[in-house]
Amino acid sequence: MIKWFKAGTPWIWLTAGAVSLSLLAVLGLLLLIGWKGLSFFWPAPVYQFDIAQQGHHSTVIGEIYQRQSVPVTQLHEAGIDTTGFKGPAVDRLVIKSGNRELRGSDFVTVLQPHIAHQAPAAGVIVIERLKNGRFYGYPVALMDDGKPLPLSQLPTQLAHSQTIRDDIRHLEKTDLTALNRQFERLRRQVERHGESADTQAERVALNAHYAVLEGKLLQLHRHLDKDALVVRDMSGEEVTIPVEMILDFWYPNEMTLWGKLGHWVHQLGNFVSEAPREANTEGGVFPAIFGTVLMVLLMSVIVTPLGVMAAVYLHEYAGKNAFTKLIRVAVINLAGVPSIVYGVFGLGFFVYMVGAQIDNLFFADQLPSPTFGTPGILWSALTLAILTLPVVIVSTEEGLARIPHSIRHGSLALGATQSETLWKIVLPMASPAIMTGLILAVARAAGEVAPLMLVGVVKMAPSLPIDSHFPYLHLERKFMHLGYHIYDVGFQSPNVEAARPLVYATSFLLVTVIVGLNLTAIGIRNHLREKFRSLEQ
Question: Which segments cross the bilayer (predicted)?
Answer without folding.
Answer: 12-35, 285-314, 326-356, 376-400, 421-443, 502-524
